[in-house]
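ERR on first pass: missing label on line 2. Operator R.T. fixed the label and resubmitted. Corrected input:
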Amino acid sequence: MTPTWVQLGYLAAAVLFILSLKGLSSPKSARMGTLLGALGALLATVILFFSGIELDNLIVILVAVIAGTAIGLVAARKVKMTAMPQLVALFNGAGGGAAALVALVEFLEYGSSKGTLFLIATVLTVLIGGVSASGSVVTYLKLQEIMTTRPVVIPAGRFITIGIAVLTVATAVWVIVSPSTLGVTGLLVLSLIFGILFVLPVGGADVPIVISLLNAFTGLSVAASGYVLSNVLLIIAGTLVGASGTLLTREMAKAMGRPLTSTLFGAFSGTTQGGGGTGVERPVRSAGPNDIAIMLGYANKVILVPGYGLAVAQAQSTLRELADLLTARGIDVDYAIHPVAGRMPGHMNVLLAEASVPYEQLKEMEEINPDFSATDVVLVVGANDVVNPAARSDKSAPIYGMPILDVDNAQQVVFLKRSMRPGFAGIENELLYDPKTTLLFGDAKDSLTKVVTSLKAL
Amino acid sequence: MDGVALLTIFVLSIFVGFEVVSKVSTILHTPLMSGANAIHGIVLIGGITVTGAADSVPEVIIGVIAILLGAINLVGGFAVTDRMLEMFKSKAKVKDEGAL
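pass 2 clean. output:
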């Protein structure tokens, strides 16, 4: 039996976790929220060491805790802000893997001696944790662009996925009915395979939603591991994340205009999502930095649309310099921030805040969309999918239904792009071929620097 | 603790989880997800518990991996969330000083 003071300590930690999530839901209290959560985690871990549990392998345990802490800290400190979403995905996978392994060790130790409920909880922990672990690694590979960001469709993949799913469920039932080490290990392997198959068909634009979903999965897996160990804190913390993560996933899907079901069951549908565009070389209008500077310098109202390409080129500060120059010329300048500009909701706000762009100039999509028709020039820097009119008109496009920035309503549109390569979602943007569109090819930072220089000389 | 008590805690936690994050603005989706991600890293204490009680070498090895992964999730998760929110600092200041 767990001592009373330990239980009270866990209760305090659980309350700190709830306050942490609450704090993170509002900009003012967000940092305090993180602090409270970390405090709760520290409290729970310290209490555990003094709670009188069996601690046979103390030295190895401490070494592992210290090593994990060091790896986590270094990764979190060193990562570039642009690569942050995939790091979160990796951390999430680590958590899912940890939960699955915890249940596995407990099973190896106790076998079936703890009863059916214990077995069911073990099976759920291993299953959900395994899917989350391997699925998260695939999302990492997609976001890091180590593998293609397009939906990967294996021939007959649908049947393989369904087959593995059936086999996984059958193994789960087998473990509950007739527990064996082979069964649990097999279940873990099958879950890992299923996690990969589950995420492979997901297209680039849906990856953030899947990360959020897998985050909720890990939460549920941790909650189930709490049953396995009869640890109330794990149940509360895991369930909190599972529930809030599910809600957050739904919110994200809504912000991106993506039906959640098509994201989730893409693996089972087996249909290749259409990619608009014909692939035929078509003429586009491109111009030099000087022409762009003149267009911008003599406009009355300019809207800047920053995208992931801006962040990759580390050109946030240069863009701000351009905005400052234009403002100094008496031009009305705003930044239009799409909810998923960057790689994830809120990512672009973080990146621009890093370059100390004034908060008031950042306009959210609903706020700025009516302004485009009264805008002379829209400068799109390294964004593509979030301004692609195919989201409005082309039902076969994978991004169909996603709310976009209506930049095509402006008088003129300027794209700073590296190449004609389609965006993250892998679809052509018709707007690039529009007569009112001008393209400036090159690295975003390089192009912006040249435009700034030309603008200064005007 | 008996199964029904644990189930009660589970069900109530679901409602709390839904409640605390409702009405969150899009700009905080990423930090919120990252913070929630850090919280499930508390599975670390599960890893420590099973490894402390482990009797065979394979159990210890698997347990140690679980601890390592849990600690990475927990510590890295909070650290990266804090770093994200650091970026909002100047912004929050501007907002506070504004005439709102």
